[in-house]
């Protein structure tokens, strides 16, 4: 193989360095780079260049060792969107200003206390007259500012939602739904992506050194125009498992794009036998010999920790991160210490099938009915999901369910090491969850859903019964978590043979399997 091409068609902000698909891309690229005999080209729209570099650096890959090809410049609509995003994001950084206001108020109160502490009649009378004059001069401006700030808080943060008239709430929800519907119906994102990918593909097709392209997503049917063979990742088609959860405007046309993309590929890679057979062969009608199963490798979180591979090191990393991000994280986390705080941990994005609500509901019972003083830490961005956010607020769990979205790998490693248990309640996954090896490698046992990709790997029935639960049965999930909290060391020891078995499958081996497959497809 002259050169391996990696084709990325993500829209802006989709390629997050610390999330699953990005890490998988990084492992494959790292394997090719370390083999030293296969140069790598990563191609994507112009808006992805920064994200590609961040992905490589986060994975410890020198960006200079990879050929990065993008379109020449960003479309103006993307530039306008970035500007709008920055303007909208600016109110999210007021905390330093709030701190300055707090300091000013504190100094003012100290000054007033000092004034009231005086024994001099002259100083007291002079101060009273000054305060009266200031009150008269500032009364109207302060009233206007107070009303403006109250309105801003209601609009931006939903504070005092119960004070809003139900009609106003309905209008607000209708506006948001209509805006999303109009955006989807016009296909703005699709049109921009299609235009940019067409420009990118024309540029790539002028090259003669890339005969095989690895495409890590099934959502880019434009790859049909690529010269050379296309090997596409087909992780899963979750619609087939949970059709009722994927019926909103955001998912309209998704299955059609997937089908068109799979048709454009010369060969497909799935991560489990279940997905290959039930999703790709049976549902999509693709011949079995065009689909290979390449399972994930182990993720040893100790490789990320470096010199911080101990509890105190993990605490230092996590507390440092909280301090660095205090202007965007909830205010109650400012100065929060995890030294003696046990917590359950779930590393996942917000997706309908990830069962985050089920985990939160189960956690609430563990906290309030079984009186276990534990927190629940998620890497899901719950602030962006109205349903989950309201669920937490309605139950008063804002200080118990902690969201730390898109944390860098070293912070993720620290969270895994410090967690009492790693809990993976997902309803479905395309491959054996990364969460098991990520947690176990730093001494944290796992509990997870009993789903097809898990039962494919865990053949020991006793171990399966010990560490898995029915994700649709919250009582089962609750009982397993309570047992795990009480028998942490026993669970950890029982999982040792599974971890040792999975440890034999390194990402070097996985990358070699990917590259061997690319060579065989190229030779066909």
Q: Radius of gyration, rounded?
A: 27 Å
- In DSSP terms (H or I, runs of 4 or more residues), the helix count works out at 21
Inertia-based shape: globular
Q: Percent helix among the residues?
A: 40-55%
β-strand amount = 5-15%
What does this structure look like?
It contains 21 helices and 13 strands. By secondary structure, the protein is α/β, with parallel strands linked by helices. It has a seven-stranded parallel β-sheet, sandwiched between helices. Helix 9 (273-283) links the parallel strand 6 and strand 7. Helix 1 crosses helix 21, helix 11 crosses helix 14 (409-418) and helix 12 packs across helix 18. The longest helix has 37 residues, at 121-157. The two termini are 13 Å apart. The relative contact order is 0.10.
What's the topology here?
Blueprint: E1 4-7, H1 20-35, E2 40-44, H2 49-58, E3 67-70, H3 76-89, H4 95-116, H5 121-157, H6 166-186, H7 188-204, E4 212-215, E5 229-233, H8 254-264, E6 267-270, H9 273-283, E7 291-293, H10 302-305, H11 311-324, E8 343-346, H12 356-368, E9 375-378, H13 386-394, E10 401-403, H14 409-418, E11 421-424, H15 435-440, E12 446-449, H16 452-457, H17 461-467, E13 468-469, H18 474-486, H19 488-494, H20 496-503, H21 507-523
Parallel strand pairs: 1-2, 1-4, 2-3, 4-5, 5-6, 6-7, 8-9, 8-11, 9-10, 11-12, 12-13
Helix pairs in contact: 1-21, 11-14, 12-18
Key features of this structure:
alpha/beta, 6-stranded parallel sheet, 52% helix
């Amino acid at each position: 193989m002259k050169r391996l091409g990696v084709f990325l068609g993500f829209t802006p902000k989709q390629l997050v360095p610390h999330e699953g698909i990005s890490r998988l891309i990084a492992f494959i690229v790292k394997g090719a780079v370390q083999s030293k005999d296969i140069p790598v080209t990563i191609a994507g729209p112009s808006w992805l260049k920064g994200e590609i570099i961040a992905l490589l650096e986060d994975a410890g890959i020198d960006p200079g060792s990879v050929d990065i090809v993008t379109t020449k410049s960003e479309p103006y609509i993307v530039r306008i969107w970035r500007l709008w995003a920055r303007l909208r994001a600016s109110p999210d950084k007021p905390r330093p200003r709030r701190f300055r206001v707090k300091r000013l108020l504190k100094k003012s109160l100290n000054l007033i206390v000092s004034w009231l502490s005086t024994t001099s009649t002259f100083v007291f009378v002079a101060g009273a007259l000054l305060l009266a004059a200031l009150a008269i001069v500032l009364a109207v401006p302060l009233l206007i500012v107070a009303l403006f700030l109250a309105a801003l808080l209601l609009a931006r943060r939903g504070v005092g939602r119960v004070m809003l008239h139900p009609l106003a709430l309905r209008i607000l929800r209708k506006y948001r739904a209509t805006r999303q519907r109009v955006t989807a119906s016009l296909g703005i994102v699709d049109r921009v992506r299609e235009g940019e990918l067409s420009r990118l593909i024309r540029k790539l097709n002028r090259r003669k050194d890339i005969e095989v392209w690895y495409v890590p997503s099934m959502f880019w049917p434009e790859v049909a125009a690529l010269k050379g063979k296309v090997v596409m990742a087909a992780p899963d088609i979750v619609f087939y498992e949970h059709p009722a959860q994927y019926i909103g405007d955001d998912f309209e046309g998704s299955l059609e794009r997937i089908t068109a993309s799979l048709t454009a590929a010369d060969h497909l890679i799935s991560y489990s036998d279940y997905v290959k057979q039930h999703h790709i062969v049976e549902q999509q009608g693709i011949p079995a010999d065009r689909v290979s199963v390449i399972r994930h490798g182990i993720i040893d979180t100790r490789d990320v920790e470096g010199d911080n591979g101990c509890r105190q090191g993990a605490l230092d990393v996590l507390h440092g991160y909280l301090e660095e991000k205090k202007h965007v994280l909830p205010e109650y986390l400012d100065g929060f210490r995890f030294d003696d705080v046990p917590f359950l941990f779930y590393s996942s994005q917000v997706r309908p099938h990830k069962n985050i609500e089920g985990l939160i509901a189960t956690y609430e019972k563990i906290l309030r009915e079984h009186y276990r003083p534990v927190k629940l830490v998620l890497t899901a961005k719950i602030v962006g999901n109205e349903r989950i956010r309201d669920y937490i607020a309605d139950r008063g769990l804002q200080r118990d369910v902690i969201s730390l979205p898109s944390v860098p790998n070293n912070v993720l490693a620290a969270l895994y090491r410090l967690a009492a248990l790693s809990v993976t309640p997902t309803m479905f996954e395309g491959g054996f969850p990364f969460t098991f090896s990520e947690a176990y490698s730093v001494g944290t046992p796992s509990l997870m859903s009993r789903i097809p990709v898990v039962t494919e790997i865990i053949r020991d029935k006793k171990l399966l019964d010990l560490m898995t639960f029915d994700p649709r049965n919250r009582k089962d999930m609750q009982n397993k978590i309570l047992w795990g909290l009480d028998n942490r060391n026993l669970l950890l020891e029982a999982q040792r043979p599974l971890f040792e078995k999975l440890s034999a499958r390194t990402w070097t081996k996985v990358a070699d399997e990917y590259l061997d497959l690319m060579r065989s497809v190229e030779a066909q």
